[in-house]
Amino acid sequence: MNFEEIVHHRRSVRNYSKLPLDTDKVKHCLELASLSPNSSNMQMWEFYHITDPEILKKLTVACLSQQAASSAQQMVVFVTRQDLHRKRAKKMMDLETQNVLNNSPKEKHESRTKRWKLYYGFVMPFLYTRFLGLAGLFRKIMVVLIGLFRPIIYQVTENDQRVVVHKTCALAAQTFMLAMASEGYDTCPMEGFDSVRAKRILKLPYGAEINMLVSCGIREEGGVWGDRMRIPFEEVYKEV
Question: Is domain 1-225 given the CATH code 3.40.109.10 in the classification?
Fold first, then answer.
């Protein structure tokens, strides 16, 4: 299928056949998902590829026993890891510093290296630090004052940064679902689930959050509930 055919083929499937999936193909789709665009390339995500039948049963209960979960052959749980922001920032700082040394003129090394160390060594940890909402409040007051004199990003509260991390993770989930469609596999993104139970099943740390669970399989007849409906394009398309 070409890209347009893949987009049209992908549907939220709520009943799968018993045909097995090639685990390596699903894993490869997750590798493609890891190439998704993300904020500042911080990649604060993890992908839990569930193939164990017992874990699938437990997650089905956490997903309120909906058919998209109970008939799934495999699942993928997309998890945000804002709690790893310092580790990921350090990795990016090292990468960008090496990129400067490898690809920039020598006379630019010092200034460009200094810029990346400032960005990933201070700005990113400063933006993603959480402390009872107070860190975000401090950032908000600071940017409001700076915004009196020049353009600045205002979305800096702790909740704002949480939204950024979840948006990034959702981009990866969408890439995964399109990659699965290209393999002839089907998926259903599920947001209706007991997050406390799901975190406990996967033994996730306190700072991790589940973005969505995606069930995987091959659609059974009737697995797609009705024709696709979208708001008329003219209502959502605004040329400026």
Answer: yes
